[in-house]
Amino acid sequence: MTEYEVPTAQAGPNGIxxxxxxxxxxxxxxxxxxxxxxxxxxxxxLYSVPTIGAHxxxxxxxxxxxxxxxxxxGSKIGEISPVTDKITEYNIPGKGGLPISIVAGTxxxxxxxxxxxxxxxxxxxxxxxxxxxxxxxxTANADDxxxxxxxxxxxxxxxxxxxxxxxxxxxIITEYxxxxxFGITxxxxxxxxxxDGSxxxxxxLATYAVTEYxxxxxxxxxGITxxxxxxxxxxxxSGLINKxxxxxxxxxKITEYPxxx
Length: 261
Fold this sequence. Notes:
The chain has strands spanning 13-18, 24-28, 33-37, 44-48, 56-61, 67-71, 76-80, 87-91, 99-104, 110-114, 119-123, 130-134, 142-147, 153-157, 162-166, 173-177, 184-186, 192-195, 199-203, 210-214, 221-226, 232-236, 243-247, 254-258. The chain has 261 residues and is an all-beta fold.
């Protein structure tokens, strides 16, 4: 494991995405920047978000090859071009949004979670229009969102302990009770994989059956993503655990790697 120090003190790096330009793009929540890092040289470049105190959080590559990110306290969705480095911002309508995570949908739009308005929203990269879809469960505390292989968008709800899905065609939301969940991603096996604070879970898109795999006690698995090696990789954020874990979708075997500092 190699670590690269972010130039800004107390920057609060949060979301990260692989850009179409070959760089990694990330958000600095506390420093109010969008950053990019070269995987070959480790050189970091920072771009200031125009809205002061925007608190950029989630970031993803859009269908237009720009990077799209949420401005949690700015109540906006931001877009940055990896070609021109220009940042464009789009206001979330209503009484003020609290956008968290964002993902590219199979319908050509960007979809994001709005915690303040308890909704799943979509934004058109062509027009910047934002449409809101209220989550049926009040105060669902939705957090993460991903695109499933079934064409739907799937998201986590931490308070009622649910996983929800929304059809990009109809906007209909369906919720499924699970033991509890935080991060979620589409796995290489065609299933959805999620973290629930103590375990790594899997939900079948064929049967909606849930299987859980226990992680070391109180390790607090949070973020999860599919790796290029065919495994699922996740963070362990609880206390002083300080590890990165991986799980094999074929066997359920979990391996943990300590982070340096």
